[in-house]
Here is the input.
Amino acid sequence: MLTTLLITCLASTCFSFSSRHYMNKTNIIPSSWNEVGKPPPNTILEFGLLMPQNNIEKLEELVIIRTNPNTESYGKWLSKNEIDKLVFSNNQNFDAVSYWISNISSSYSCIYTADSIYCKTSIENMNILFDTEMLEYQNSYTKNKFYSGRKMGYSIPLHLKNTIELVIGVG
Here is the structure.
């Protein structure tokens, strides 16, 4: 019985937060940020996950050639579509990240680009995804309000450490 319980617990990732990779573990809040408090859990926010790009050396080589006035390719710039095709992240990265997000909640929407995923979901889901507590702040100079998980820090599962290079919209 204990073995079955342990296997069930592991399969349901009950220990997932013990094997996390911190993307930001600082709790330093800029002096111009005034904490407003906890926002409603159903507040919808956006976040982005940037993944490793391929062929960066090739892209650098193409840029050098196209900026050299002594080459036939001088000034013949690549389109965004051509760059995206060149640096496109591996499908395995997209699959792994999509699987992680979908296991937390079914109430999210995502847009996929060549090397990133941008999603909208509730603060409640973001708190679970990134093992954090999103708080509302107001900038004392601009009076703009915004949300951040910086006070507690935020993380991703350890197995995605080499799959997600940068998280945008949480810190």
Notes: The chain has a mean pLDDT of 88.
